[in-house]
Each structure stands twice: as structure tokens, then as C-alpha cells.
Design goal:
By secondary structure, the chain is an alpha/beta fold. It is built from 27 helices and twelve strands.
């Protein structure tokens, strides 16, 4: 029997690295726990619309929203489309002015005189003001947007009128700065303002200063930029960040539609970095999706979103249709209050959006983690290469330490940390499974062992294997954890590879220990010889069909993981997931609960019952999926580390139970059903 030794010095380095990673992860957990304040936001315009639909004063709707738990109202820049409706300022096309003159509808002698002397141009736009402060703000912003040469003041009697050279259709939609009347109304209602500014063309520092001058007299909780650029981009993003820092304003970063990273806005990451990532993630249920959801579904979505993805700006959209037995106002207030109550029950506080504190672990601690990763990689090589001498082991260890730990100690190493995380996500689950193989391989299975003992052995082995895999999870988190990864400014990009590579690593180790063709554990041909033998095997049609089914299963397995492939999930599975989300602190992953861990239990049964080695091989590879998935869960750094830990624990416990049921079923089948189906019977 080939002997593979577990080098004690390598194990010592792994233990030291584990302690260092746990130290980092404890710090990470403390940072995550401290960031538990959620800001509940509704668009100010939505509340105005709701008031109009229900025929009640806006102030009354705002009072009810405040009582229901809403903390902030989002205020967008004003436009002439809005101003023409509220009547505070009016814009009219020059051609319409001329038409009114020609039809006799124009009675004001001052306007008639301007038409008659040729001042009024059909291609210009004329802006009149009926609210002094609003007109003043519009005038200021028009000059910033268009320039002084395109905005001319006219005197019509005692009133000032602006003649603007612009396309009317575009002009109506043009953003015209933050409206002070709306911000005052929001503050008077007891809310914070969440400012939603847009950028200026060729934005200057003076433009940035003008924005802050506009909002400085009001209580503003944060800034979430509208459009494809942030205010100040591209040249004055750092200046914008400086002004935000002076006012302790939180940057809202809009989560991307795939739930990965953010909606692209030029300058956003520059502002976040310059402001030391005093930022929070914002999410809003898409309007077209919310139409299909009930209040309870939305509440559940917010609970899961805030807990699992570190969302701290909750932008709630109003329901357009009332729920059964309620009017539209009652429907939305019930919705707001239910979200507030559920989040409070989940342990969150409601207020201004929380932001992560500055979190960047010490370089020397992270370097110990890197050293442990190098030791684990060398240990794996020693477990698949028989007789790998100490000379090569320590030489490879030294090389790995220089490559992984060196850059981190020098204060860099962002890319090498990703490499270390990738190695942790793949090597540690493989080592965990290999160690179990070696444990079983070292003793002859008892054919008469009772099923209860086999089940107990399988459960204990699965828990031990999971514990070793969790070492890899600690290493992965310890390699990456910092503020940028918690916010998801940076992401781990090797997730798809972690679905496949651990299986390959275990397959190599398995074929170094077992003969797939005759079941021998002694004098096996080794991985390469067995691989060549497999490649030289004649292929039958049924084998091709089997390989095709395996390929399809593999594609589905990879495609269903993550958020970008669009592989649909059945309604039955969605209901099952919803049940687990409500029943458990964190829903276990299906690939662990229903695939990997039950396969592990069946692999133990296969060992005791001396099933064909090829069957054992397949079960072991499937079992590796569960171990790899447990570690890969921690690659989603936006999810709190304790939630990832709880998710894996729930999966391994329930998976062991499902596996035990499968073992019982297989045993009953082989004892009572299979003999009756045998052709020799």
C-alpha cells in the first residue's frame, strides 16, 4: 500500500496560519456586528403621488410614513416637467408665445410689445417664476448647465423672464439642482434628506461648492448620485469626497442588477476611496418585480437582503395597487411598518445608514495566513506524490512563502491575496476529503458492521471533514477581509473555478490510492497510468450517453451557482428555499444539503459494503462538491461571516440526516427489492 505522510512541520505552519486567520475573522465579525443601522427611504415624489391618489394632504401622508418607520425621503433635482405641474416656475416654448399673440389669446401688453418688436423668438424658451426662491435657484442652475450666453434676462413689466436657447423637449427633462422647498418640506416632516444629485458637464469645484451651499441648511443623511456620473466626475471626485467627509455624509452605492458590485457610475469608486469608504450599499426592489409580489414577500426580501448582502440604504417603492381589504394609503403604510418591525426583530436598528469602520488587518498577521496557505499547497503535493522528499517539500515551502507572504509584508499583495484565497477555497476541501480517504484506507472495512454504526461513522466522518474544510473557509476570509471586500468594491473572481478544481484535486489523490478497475489498494497504477488507461478504453454508445448526461449535469451545476448565468430555478425549489429561510437562521446551500453531504454518507456505506471502486470514486467526487461549497460560501465577502458559518453548519447537519435516510433506503432496497429483481432468482 502506498504511504503518504502528513508532514508535521507543514501542519504546524497551517495551525499558526489558522490562528492568524481566526484573529482577522474575529475582527471582521466585530466590524460587521457594529454596522447594524438601516435607513428606510421613500422617494419624496412617491409620497406626493400617494397623497394625490388618495386625496389627502401631503403632510398627513408624511406623518403616517414617519410613524411607520421611514427615516429619510429621497429628493431628486428638480425639472421643468415637475415645475410646470406645481406652478412655481413655468417654461413655455417661444413658438407657443407667438401663436398666442397671433390668435389674440395674449392680452398682456408687455408681452405683446416684446412680440411686436421682435424680441420673442420662436426657437427660444421663456421661463417665468411664481415663487421667488425657486425661480432664483432655477436661474442659477440654468447658467451652470447651459452657460451665460444661452440664458438671457428680459424685463416684462416688473417681472424678470429668462429667455433660454435650448430644445424644449430636452429642456423639460433637464436637471436643475436640488430644490430647497422640497428639502425643507422633508425636514419639517421629521425626515432626513437623501440627496440624489446629477453631474454637470465639465464639472468644476465651483459647481460642487454650489451644490453643498444648496443643501447645507438642511439635515442630509447621505448622497446617492443619479445618472451615469457622480457629481464632480471626472476631475473633481476627490474634492467632492473631501466636502462629503467634512459633513460626515455617507455615500450610497447602488447595488447592481445581478446583485454583484454596483450600478456603474463614473467617479463613484474614486469618491468612495478618497472618503475612506465611508459608504453603504443601496438596494431597491425593482418596480416591475414588486408589482408581482405581496407585502409579505417584500418584507421577506428586505429581511434577507439586509442580513445577507450588507444593504444599509433600503429604498422602498410604493405599491401602485391596494392590497385586499385596504386602500392604497393603508397598503403602503402597512408595508413600511412591516419592514420596520421585521428588521427590528432581526436585530437591526432603524436610523441613518451604517458604514463599516476602517478595517485593514495588520500586514504581519496577514503574512502568517499567506504562509499557512503555502504550507497547505505543499502538503497537498506531498499527498499525491509518493515519496516526495523533505528537500523538495521545504524548497517548495520557501518558494511559496516568498511568493505569497513577501508582497503582503511589503504592504502590497492585493492580487496575491486573491491567489491565496483561491488556493484556500480549493486545496483545503481537497485535503479534508483526502484525509478521510486515508483514515478509511488504513483499516479493513467490516462487512458485518451494523447499519446504525455505519451511519454514526458516516456522520462523525462528515462532521470531521467539514471542520477541516472550515479551516479553508477561515483562510479564505482571512486572506481577503477588509473594508473594500465587505462593501464589495472588490470581489473574489475565482468562484466558478472553485466548483470544479477541488473535484479534480480529489480525483488525482483518489487514483493515486485506489485502482478504479479492480479495486486494489496496493500497487495501484497511479493517476497518470489510470488516466491513460481510461483514455484508451473503447467507448460504447451507452457510455457516450452517460458522459453527455454528466456534462449536462456539470453545466447545470456551474450555471445555477452565482447570479449571472440565468439558469432558472423551479417553483418547487423556490418554495423549499423560502421554507428553509424562514425555519433557519441561514438557508443551507442546495448543493451541500441535497447533493454533496448525502453523497458523502453513501460513500461511507460504499466503503463498508465493498461496492465497486468506480462507484466509490464517483460518490467521493460528488461528496467533494459539498465540502468545496462550504468554503466557497465564504467567498461572498459581503455576507456576514457568522451567517456564512451558520449556513454551512445547517447544511452539514441536515445533509447528514438526509444522507442517513438515503443509506437506510439503499439498505432496504438491497435487502428486499434487489434480490427479487435479480435474473438468477
Amino acid at each position: 500500500m502506498k504511504q503518504f505522510s502528513y508532514n508535521k512541520f507543514l501542519i504546524l505552519l497551517i495551525v499558526i496560519g489558522l490562528v492568524a486567520s481566526l484573529f482577522i475573522n474575529v475582527q471582521r465579525h466585530q466590524v460587521e456586528v457594529a454596522n447594524n443601522s438601516i435607513e428606510l427611504i421613500v422617494d419624496y415624489e412617491d409620497l406626493v403621488t400617494l397623497a394625490e391618489c388618495e386625496g389627502v394632504p401631503v403632510s398627513e401622508v408624511m406623518a403616517q410614513a414617519k410613524e411607520a418607520g421611514i427615516t429619510s425621503l429621497a429628493v431628486y433635482e428638480t425639472t421643468f416637467k415637475k415645475l410646470n405641474v406645481n406652478g412655481k416656475t413655468t417654461a413655455i416654448n417661444g413658438s407657443d408665445v407667438l401663436t398666442n399673440y397671433q390668435t389674440g389669446a395674449m392680452t398682456d401688453p408687455n408681452w405683446r410689445q416684446l412680440v411686436e418688436n421682435g424680441t420673442i423668438k420662436g426657437t427660444d424658451i421663456y421661463v417665468t417664476g411664481h415663487h421667488q426662491q425657486t425661480f432664483k435657484e432655477v436661474h442659477e442652475d440654468l447658467i451652470r448647465r447651459l452657460g451665460k450666453d444661452r440664458v438671457q434676462e428680459l424685463k416684462v413689466g416688473n417681472e424678470t423672464v429668462l429667455a433660454v436657447k435650448a430644445n424644449f423637449e430636452s429642456f423639460e427633462k433637464m436637471d436643475l439642482g436640488m430644490p430647497t422647498d422640497e428639502m425643507k418640506a422633508v425636514n419639517d416632516g421629521g425626515f432626513y434628506v437623501l440627496a440624489r444629485p446629477t453631474n454637470y458637464r465639465s464639472c468644476t469645484k465651483d459647481d460642487v461648492d454650489a451644490f453643498f451651499k444648496r443643501i447645507d441648511d438642511y439635515k442630509v443623511s447621505g448622497i446617492v448620485f443619479s445618472g451615469s456620473q457622480t457629481l464632480g466626475a471626472p476631475d473633481n471626485s476627490e474634492y467632492m469626497a473631501e466636502k462629503m467627509a467634512q459633513r460626515n455624509l455617507t455615500l450610497g452605492m447602488i447595488e447592481g442588477v445581478t446583485q454583484l458590485q454596483f450600478f456603474p457610475q463614473d467617479g463613484m469608486l474614486d469618491i468612495a476611496k478618497a472618503n475612506d469608504y465611508h459608504s453603504a450599499r443601496l438596494y431597491s426592489i425593482p418596480k416591475d418585480e414588486q408589482k408581482k409580489m405581496k407585502i409579505g414577500d417584500c418584507v421577506e426580501r428586505w429581511s434577507n437582503t439586509d442580513a445577507e448582502r450588507n444593504i444599509r440604504f433600503n429604498l422602498l417603492k410604493i405599491f401602485d395597487k391596494p392590497a385586499p381589504g385596504m386602500n392604497l394609503l393603508e397598503t403602503n403604510m402597512t408595508y413600511f411598518g412591516s419592514v420596520r418591525d421585521r428588521l427590528v426583530a432581526d436585530g437591526f436598528t432603524i436610523g441613518k445608514a451604517g458604514a463599516f469602520e476602517h478595517f485593514y488587518p495588520a500586514s504581519w498577521v496577514r503574512a502568517l495566513v499567506m504562509l499557512g496557505v503555502a504550507a497547505a499547497c505543499v502538503l497537498y503535493l506531498s499527498l499525491v506524490i509518493p515519496g516526495l522528499g523533505n528537500k523538495y517539500i521545504y524548497g517548495l515551502l520557501l518558494l511559496g512563502a516568498v511568493v505569497l507572504a513577501g508582497p503582503v509584508l511589503m504592504g502590497h499583495g492585493n492580487k496575491i491575496r486573491v491567489v491565496a484565497a483561491l488556493a484556500s477555497a480549493n486545496v483545503f476541501p481537497a485535503i479534508a476529503v483526502i484525509w478521510q480517504l486515508d483514515r478509511f484506507r488504513s483499516k479493513e472495512p467490516g462487512e458485518k458492521t451494523s447499519l446504525s454504526k455505519i451511519i454514526l461513522t458516516g456522520m462523525l466522518s462528515l462532521f470531521a471533514c467539514g471542520a477541516l474544510s472550515y479551516i479553508g473557509a477561515s483562510y479564505l476570509s482571512g486572506s481577503l477581509a477588509d473594508t473594500e471586500y465587505l462593501l464589495e468594491v472588490n470581489i473574489f473572481r475565482g468562484i466558478k473555478l472553485t466548483f470544479i478544481l477541488p473535484i479534480i484535486l480529489v480525483a488525482i489523490a483518489f487514483m493515486q490510492r485506489f485502482d478504479l478497475f479492480d479495486g486494489k489498494m496496493d500497487d495501484t497504477e497511479g493517476f497518470l497510468n489510470q488516466f491513460y488507461r481510461i483514455m484508451d478504453m473503447p467507448v460504447k454508445v451507452k457510455t457516450l450517453i452517460g458522459l453527455f448526461l454528466v456534462l449536462v449535469a456539470g453545466i447545470v451545476f456551474v450555471a445555477r451557482s452565482g447570479h449571472t448565468m440565468g439558469m432558472p430555478v423551479s417553483a418547487t425549489e423556490l418554495k423549499f428555499r423560502a421554507f428553509l429561510e424562514q425555519a433557519l437562521y441561514a438557508r443551507p446551500r442546495s448543493k451541500e444539503l441535497l447533493i454533496g453531504h448525502p453523497a458523502f454518507m453513501l460513500a461511507v456505506l460504499a466503503w463498508f459494503k465493498k461496492w465497486p471502486t468506480m462507484v466509490l470514486f464517483v460518490l467521493v467526487l460528488i461528496a467533494t462538491i459539498g465540502q468545496g461549497s462550504m468554503v466557497e460560501t465564504f467567498a461572498h465577502m459581503r455576507s456576514p461571516i457568522f451567517m456564512s458559518f451558520a449556513r454551512g453548519i445547517g447544511g452539514i447537519v441536515l445533509g447528514a440526516v438526509i444522507g442517513a435516510i438515503c443509506m437506510i433506503f439503499v439498505q432496504l432496497w438491497s435487502k428486499y427489492v434487489s434480490p427479487k429483481l435479480s435474473p438468477n432468482k
